[in-house]
User: Fold this.
Amino acid sequence: MKWRAHSPGRLYDADESTVVYFDSHSGDTHLLSDFAGCIMQTLTRQPMTTEELVRALTPSFEPDDTSDLSDLVTGVLEELVTLDILKKT
Amino acid sequence: MTFLLAQLLLHPERVLELDNAQLNVLLSQGRNSRLLGSLAFEMQRVGADTQLPQIVDRHFQSARLIYEKQKQDLSYDSEKVRLALDSVGQKLVLLKGAAYILGGLPVGRGRYITDIDIIVPKDRIDEAERTLIAFDWEAADIDPYDDHYYRTWGHEIPPLTNLKRETTLDVHHNILPPTAGPNVDASLLFEQLIEVKPGIYTLSWKDMVIHSATHLFHEGEFHHGLRDLWDLDRMLRDFSARDPRFWGGLLPRAEQLQLTGSLFHGLNYANQVFETPVPAHILEEASSWSRALRKPLMDFLFLRALRPNHPQSRLRHTDLALNLLYFRSHYLRMPLHLLLPHLAKKAWMRRIKKNGAA
Amino acid sequence: MQLLHHLAADEFKERLSRGDIPLRIGPYVYNLQSNVPSVVTGIETLYADFQLAKPGEFIDYNVTLECSGILGRLRGEAKFIFDNNSPFDPIPKGQAYAFLEWGMNWCVSLHTNEYLKLHAGAVSRADFAVIMPGLPGAGKSTLCAALGLSGWRVLSDEHAMIPPNTTEVIPLSRPVSLKNESIDVIKSFSSAAIFGPVSKETHKGVVAHMKADLQPDSHDAKSLQARAMVFPRYSKDDPQQLTRRRRTDSFILAAYHSFNYSLLCDAGFEAMKTLIENVDCYDLVYHDLEWALMAMDQLPELQSGQ
Assistant:
């Protein structure tokens, strides 16, 4: 089961703790945490499973923080699905 | 039967011959008739838009932008409706503008829509309503009288709205209310559906034309009259060009659906206003359905109502004509004894609301 | 170049009643028509320094505010007509002028999409333009009016119009609309304030409009560079301050208060991104107008100091 972005999407990253994400599929604009923005950027490049995504994100985090990275990632992914930015395929 | 908007819709390249005053009138008529999008696309099709000064063309560009946004929203929203209906094994069958646009038809280019119209079988409409409500569509907050009217006498349930998207969904179970004279067997429509996208259906071409004519002449919403007539013209030209058997099958189908009167009026007035090339023998055969004595009155009523609501194109006595047509359309929908209480109640409710707001 | 006040009073009234007053307002030409006395006076006062378009020039919007028929006259009602449609219910004559201005806003809000349109005021001083998104009740118009009376040019009170992929602001100057207490606040602020007719009992309360084209360059058509976006907020209790705010949530707030951000889809996102990337965003909390003006005056130095 892979996570897939509905549309290529556009991101505005101003080096703040939030990013602006435009989803052309729904026409909605979202204010996402930079973590969620990072996930969207990664998945926009290609659909991934949760494990692949965690592996792709791990380099950005200090070793201590990655212990529950998988849970964190899954939580955010589920939220992004409710926002209709992502889908499970 | 010529006025500026009709002329330009038929011959968009002539926009380059207009002076500033005429361009202003054209834009005004176009906005008024909800046809500016269609006109803007016709002009783009012939390359006339790029030759206009920017101060003029920006209005047409704006019209095209509005259409593109609408089309995107329609794609998204209709997919949501499809998923909802699919969850209970029902098909998404689009009507009118939504059908034209998602069906990729020339008539859909630049066409504005306000709601998404769909049709479901009458015996499954309650199920459809329940399912849509479960999927984030909300029932309209309308007064009980209107609610009762829709359900008992109309051919649709009260509109559903997706509050987040601000989209309105009209769910029909027939294309004419059961209380109107002609008795349309809606199951016939479902026998000839076309799948235009995976899981998304429209009526057959003949049925779309018949429905459009019926909608125009029975619904009483004449501020969209010219637009509906343009729809008919575009469809008749397109379908007859692509299907050699189109004309031959149209009248028999209208007879089968018992909607011959409306179709005649549609063919006749499209031909008069937009020079739609309806074969003479078709018009002749269809005209036998409309009682000859009534024709001059019908001409007076319809031709006046179908012009854009603009001084340059509005003839005298238009308001009277519009009122008569509104009355006629209601009469066509409901037997007289049911009609009068309905109209009287609506006026009463209007006045109360106005005082309440003061 | 003919200005409205160059017309003799009688000629003006006659032409206005017949619908031959084409005014250049920002990038558009509005043709006005009215026979309602308060509207005639209001236009004469507030649009005195606006340019008349030449005969035969293209007119974008035809706007009429008239007393409608015998019944209408008896009931003291007027009608706003655009494209020969009356989008509003009949209007009590006492509110006619307010509806003219709302109607003129409405034309731009709905029908023009060659710019990204924010629901915002825009002001400028020298080459420094500031966009002020208008959150409801925030006191944007009051601040705009005060700025206009203090040497700032009012580019617009209602529509900040930005050509996509630029940080320019297109001037679209019209009178500033003030409500209720703000009217008295501005009257006390400066005796030089010129007002049009007062409309009472509108759905927003008492409404009046202030002449805002007080600078020599008020009717210059050239666009200006936006350098800051300021979100004003009037508050009696909170401490006054001018502070930087984050770009990403400024983006969202500005987009939310835009007429056509969503309509423009991807192009809207890109236009807003280009704008926000290149202007500094601020919160301005104030209860004292003089203090707020001082804070605004300091913006150019604040910027160049960074």
Summary: Chain C touches chain B through 18 residues (CB under 8 Å). Chain C has two domains: 4-111, 116-174+212-304.
